[in-house]
Amino acid sequence: MPSYTSKHVEILLIDDNPADVRLAQETLKDYKLQNVLHVVQDGESALAFLRREGRYADAPVPDLVLLDLALPKIDGIEVLAQIRTDERLSNLPVVVMAASPVDQEMLTDLNVTPDCFILKPLTVERYLEAIRCFPQLALSIVKIATA
């Protein structure tokens, strides 16, 4: 299980939409979450990162995974299923980002459930909602004062 005692949070964002990636980067920067954001753009790369295979052999174990369901190569549902069935990964906190509540129902029907589910379109508030799903991570958020 990931440790939350370190000074920074390792976050793996699995999303192929450049606008969503930018929004995640801006949200995490603006809210001063002490983090390192890693981004992969397809399910195949995500699994390689999580399993520390190939070019990701030195990848850190993430404290939090933000997972889009609509991914190229291997879709997000399969990525989540593999995370949940791999004993080395099964305890990773996973936030699924999806376009419809129907996606959440489908995951439940397939018995593949994330720790948290947020709907697109993504907003700063929805990212913060996802982070608040994990109190030990939410404690790391400090709002930057704007003058």
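The record above closes out task 2.4. Task 2.5 opens with a second protein, given below.
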Amino acid sequence: SFFQPPICDNPCLEDLGMQVSTPDQSLLAPVVRDYASTLQLDITLNFPSNHFSKPRQERGIHIHVFCLPIRPNWFGLFPRVPLIKMPFAFGYRLAEGAQLAFAPGSGLGRGKILYDPEGRAVAEILGTNVYVLFELGRQGNLAPLLLRKVLDLALQAMTEDLARLSSYNPERLGVTLDHLRRDTEAQDHRRKAEVQAEVRKKYWEECKGRFQDEALFLEREIKAVEETIEEYSLLITAEAQRLKESRKRLKFLQGTQEESEIYKKEFDCLLEIPEVREVLVQNWVVSIFTDTIFAEHGKRLYKLGSFRINVHFNGQLAIKNLTDPYGFYDHPHIWDGKPCLGNIRVGLAKLIGEFQLMAAAQVLIDFLKTINPKDWYTPIENWQEMPQ
């Protein structure tokens, strides 16, 4: 199970800014219509403003978005169910400012808790009532796909109730649910492909802009070198070598299709690293999001959390722990986003400078998995030990 401490001591939901934006129900309505039509059942979609909705007894399936069957607060003052920060659901990064969820460790409404493949509590079912435990309505265009995934989990868990409500026989009901799951998987695949294609395109555009700037610099450099050769005969040998290397690099950068494919292939290889969950490119920064990182030390295994690695094209580097930081320590070897790279710093800088981001990412992931007590800022025992 996935548990985290409350993100805030303030028990008032409104004080946490949860009413700043209104959930976009219009994006979710087509999903509800699709499932209702396919199953030939009534399905309701509820967005209670106070995050409390009593279980409904009417015939059909009732979805309650980001709320509980019990009041989250006692008398509007004291928290009955604390809130946690949930950065990911079903493998997707949730929208910034909309990463709150109800903590499953408090019993919730005493129904059946449903978990996504990574062990995060995403819903609770009471009879034919489905309570979504995270901010589903504020996920923009991702919300319909997340709702489908929640419904697929919930419908699988309430097959007895569905058999009672539906006009289908058990065999046909199973085939129908399998058909809905396949549709969800197809939409999931299309979305990931579209996101990857968009980020890949943006990555190449950023690289191309960088190449153009460097090409202009090298053209000026070549001219300066030629003038230097004429003026300083004693430096002819050294400066002639600089001229040769600069011209070689300029010729490489002025290529188009061949170099484009090289860097696109480099980006694809980066996405194939098993620990890489997602890659974003923006404003000369490549952000690499990892899956949960585990590290061994003293024959013990520790869960360090999911990281965001920001690689700047100018060589700067920042690594933040998104899920399990220990105060200002993101990792035994990282304080406030600043890693202590030791003897790998020079080689890593060379890889980044040559745009070999796949190799650089692999080096950094190996760095996250490697623990050296002589150099750490804080002991690894401050992170959760995992059973083996």
